[in-house]
Amino acid sequence: MPTLLEIGRTHTCGDLRLSDEGERAVLFGWVNSRRDHGGRIFVDLRDREGMTQVVFGPDVDADAYEAAQALRSEHCIGVCGKILRRVDNDGTPNANPNMATGEIELEVDVFELFSKAETPPFDISKDERLDTHENLRLQYRYLDLRRPSLQRNFILRSRLGTITRAHMSELGFLELETPYMVKYTPGGARNFLVPSRLNPGCFYALAESPQIFKQLFMVSGFDKYFQITRCFRDEDLRNDRQPEFTQIDVELSFATPELVFEAIESLMIRLWKDLLGVEIPTPFRRLTWAQAMARYGSDKPDTRFGLELSDLTALTRGCGFAVFEGAPYVKGLCLPPEHGPGYGRGKIDKLTAFAKKRESGGAKGLAWARVEDGGIWQGGSAKFISAELQTKISAEMGAEPGSLLLFVADDFETTHTVLNAIRLHLRDELGLLAGSGPTPWNFLWVTDFPLFERNRDGNWVSSHHPFTSPRDEHVELLSSDPGKVLARAYDLVLNGNEIGGGSIRIHQADVQAKVFEALGMSEAEKQAKFGFLLDAFKYGPPPHGGIALGVDRLSMLMSEADSLRDVIAFPKTQKGQDLMTQCPTPADEPQLAELFIRHRALPNEAAGQAPDAGET
């Protein structure tokens, strides 16, 4: 008699329905739970597609029933039997509405135990109710990945890749590969380095993006390129960052922003329709960088709710309130009457402490006032502002009796960072998105970013990268006033998350020279970092542009996961460690010698102590 493996699985554990009643089926999977009810054993059998209740009875097959006595969670088994309607003892239908297969059960007459399982370190059957510490889940990631909620995430992610490849191919894009090990160029994101055994003392860098290579594809005449590719950055980590990440990389020749937008919007429409069954309206809304910062304090604003910012800088000049008069920017937001009265002094003090936190932007303080009947201000800053100015500010901010006004006065970056943090904090604390039905999907293009920004030393650096094209009408400002130059750059934002960024590239040698000059690059530095690209650009480069979309972030948002680690199969911790494989690990001396590397002991190691977490 053939084994069940030889017969083969006929259905997944999520397939069977009442229409299959009376048929036979072979199922493979893992024991999610086992229950012994009065001489019959019930097992919920689980695979990646779902769960089916299977039943063992001594009257059906005594051997199978006897073997089922020893079944425990996570045993891997195969079963064969007849599909029956789930009924009570009196024949009344007894469907389980919480299971897609809940109207049927499989009565087992053939059973095969593939392998036993030790007691798992956490209860996989709890799934979304699981309260196990994440570090333990990451240590046993292969078990964590059995949880249905995570498997749904990865099924969605897999389909996202398949649909993207099909859609981009239909649009005429070629899927082309670029190298992972590339030339190391100082500056920008910190690279991971790979020593070259065949070239002693030399190193590759793991590519932080395919940027230069996809531009070279345009020079080579492959006018439509895409790739779903891995990228690597040695950055400090948090919930929305990993040292290795995946992006949908796109570039096309003879491009305008409109052509890029058209291709990417069509991809988003396809993904949301095919994966979520949601129709996304187009064209996507657009805001310039200046508009986004002015209204929301962020270049990736969440536009699903109000609480927009008001610029009060001009109104408060000469107002006599030193906090406002001495600041380059004074801006505020108005908490409307339905929420304002709920914020007493205790909550305002907590909000002030939140605004002062470094991760919130580090405000010196948070000024406030409450609008009473007749438009009179009470509390906070009220005594420092004249009645006439109170009226003007209230009108500017759209305040009504019962409103709470919140103000930040500081430099540009601090003012906007803090007010954006407060705005998002209030969104969550007040549940401003709760009760709105299905998840609203607010796509937004943010355009016209500054081409340059100041670094800590006060020097100009590229806001994106040095090959981003300035607006045509701003080219002359490159020499005279770089701070006013706007880029032909754009980000795609979804519900307050940046999911993609790109630009039209520079293809004219004279414009590129002016950008390098504004950045203070020497000829030697240009050649060391970008010599091969600049050489390629001597041979008729086409106008071109593109974008990169974050696959991890897209997957996280579409699956409504809590963090990127829930959509990356084997993620790293915030210290860049893989708890399952226990890496990174030291290399032994023979390995290092083969790579012409010598290990120098850290101070604590020399003293016989473990190195500090911050030491490298």
CATH architectural arrangement of the largest domain: 2-Layer Sandwich
Number of strands: 23
Portion in beta strands: 15-25%
Question: What order do the strands of the largest sheet run in, or round the barrel if closed?
Answer: 6-10-11-23-22-21-18-12
- How does the helix and strand content classify structurally? alpha+beta
What is the average of the pLDDT values?
Answer: 93
Number of helices: 19
CATH superfamily of the largest domain: Bira Bifunctional Protein, Domain 2
State the separation between the terminal residues, measured CA to CA. 62 Å
Largest sheet: 8 strands, mixed
Number of domains: 3
In CATH terms, what is the fold-level topology of the largest domain? BirA Bifunctional Protein, domain 2
> Helical percent range?
25-40%
Rg over CA atoms: 30 Å
- Give start-end ranges of low-pLDDT stretches: 610-616
- Gross morphology is globular
CATH class of the largest domain: Alpha Beta
GO molecular function, one term: ATP binding
Catalytic activity: tRNA(Asx) + L-aspartate + ATP = L-aspartyl-tRNA(Asx) + AMP + diphosphate
Binding site for L-aspartate: 233, 464, 505
Enzyme class: ligase
